[in-house]
Amino acid sequence: MTGAASFKGLKPILYGGREVWPLIEGGKGVAVSTHASSGAWAAAGGIGTVSAVNADSYDAEGKIVRQVYDALTRKERHEQLIRYAIDGAVEQVKRAYDIASGKGAININVLWEMGGAQQVLEGVLERTRGLVTGVTCGAGMPYRLSEIAARFDVNYLPIISSARAFRALWKRAYHKVAHLMAAVVYEDPWLAGGHNGLSNAEDPLKPEDPYPRVKALRETMRAEGISDEVPIIMAGGVWFLREWDHWIDNPELGAIAFQFGTRPLLTQESPIPQLWKDRLRELEPGDVLLHRFSPTGFYSSAVRNPFLRNLEDRSHRQIPYSKVEAGEHTVRLDVGVKGKNFWVAPADLARAREWFGAGFTEGLRTPDDTIVFVTPADRTEIQQDQKDCMGCLSHCGFSSWKDHDDYTTGYLADPRSFCIQKTLQDIAHGGSIDQNLMFAGHAAYRFKQDPFYSNNFTPTVKQLVDRILTGD
């Protein structure tokens, strides 16, 4: 690679048989990381990432095929979803590869906890041989990723949030296919957008400095005999490379690359609707919330818009109950449950009556032996969305779907969550930016502060990559 100057002598790396910049476009699922952005990122000399999470397909006229799930059973709708996912990702990869024109590289990204993940990944790789350089995969513990990569002779790049998680994956499976592990993505659980790998031992309200965590990851990799030339990719909170200059050429860390998930949202090639792009320019520090409403059960980060605030408020309107009089539960609940025999604490009965009087007249049970109070309209929407479940996750807390065995988690469906497939499809295709989930990393407020975006400037992907290479 010649011609482009780079910050602090940032050097290209050899990946997939060619030199590429160690700049990776983060994969953003459900019609956000499409061929347009990922192909352009690769054409600019980096590693573009097509999301293989329910990607869009196109009809003969080039229009997006809306994903309609009209089968009668969840299992049949799940099979429809898998077909949509494979067809869409294959189409996106082919288009991205054409745009890249032999430059950079094209990866695909999958979530291990998405419904039918292995079937989708195998289906896509089977039909895109020679086009995909590597697979990034997180959201869960994808032990079988290396085995699948070996079968299709592609690189794999596990996404982890701690040295401990990587060590478990390596010991159990990855050491058998060491030669295809092209990099390890460290996705910071307090900084990255989308689903995050925050463990029960970590405090969502107490962010940890990523440097010691990445240093510990490198030490773990060295202890397992992995070369320092296998890059660790820093993902989450990366904006200006100059802020990471002490990471580059640092012998403690070995080879380092950087992933950008949020900044590529605001480019000319980014497929997200204009209203979404406009909203990104208005965000302030703290406007992105790390929350646990996702039906995956993982923590995730998204813009704290009315949709998310409604979920916060809904969870505040809940009280514990017993089926029999016991302990503090000494009075019968007489609102929201239509004569059912639930016992609650006297103070909680008073709260429930207050919510009832404010219009939250419907009590819905949760898997945690609590009752949440919602409006009749919300109850109708929740129950309809649960009924319409198309099995987009391997395990869904919202609908109690499971993608194998008897197709149920065995738990009560959780009304404090939401249908993630429905809302992500809607916002990506022009739906409300206030009444849908809007994923973003915690550095998204920097769009408003960064002079690069002043006067409503929207760069091309090439302009963005060139800007990043200057250190800004």
Q: What does this entry look like structurally?
A:
With 472 residues, the protein is of the alpha/beta class. The chain has two domains: 302 residues, Alpha-Beta Barrel (TIM Barrel), CATH 3.20.20; 123 residues, no CATH class. It has 13 helices and 18 strands. The strands form five sheets. An eight-stranded parallel β-sheet has the order 3-11-10-8-7-6-5-4. Strands 9-13-12 form a three-stranded antiparallel β-sheet, with no helix packed on it. The longest helix is centred in the N-terminal third of the chain and has 27 residues. The radius of gyration is 23 Å and the shape is globular. 49% of the residues are buried.
Structurally, the number of domains stands at 2
β-strand amount: 15-25%
Rg, alpha carbons: 23 Å
CATH-assigned homologous superfamily of the largest domain? Aldolase class I
Quote the distance from N terminus to C terminus.
Answer: 20 Å
What spatial form do the alpha-carbon principal axes imply?
Answer: globular
Strand order of the largest sheet: 3-11-10-8-7-6-5-4
Number of strands: 18
Uncertain stretches of 5 or more adjacent residues: none
At the fold tier of CATH, the topology name of the largest domain is TIM Barrel
The largest sheet is: 8 strands, parallel
Q: Helix/strand/pairing class, anyone?
A: alpha/beta
Helix content: 25-40%
Number of helices: 13
Q: CATH class of the largest domain, please?
A: Alpha Beta
Q: What's the CATH architecture name of the largest domain?
A: Alpha-Beta Barrel
Mean pLDDT: 94
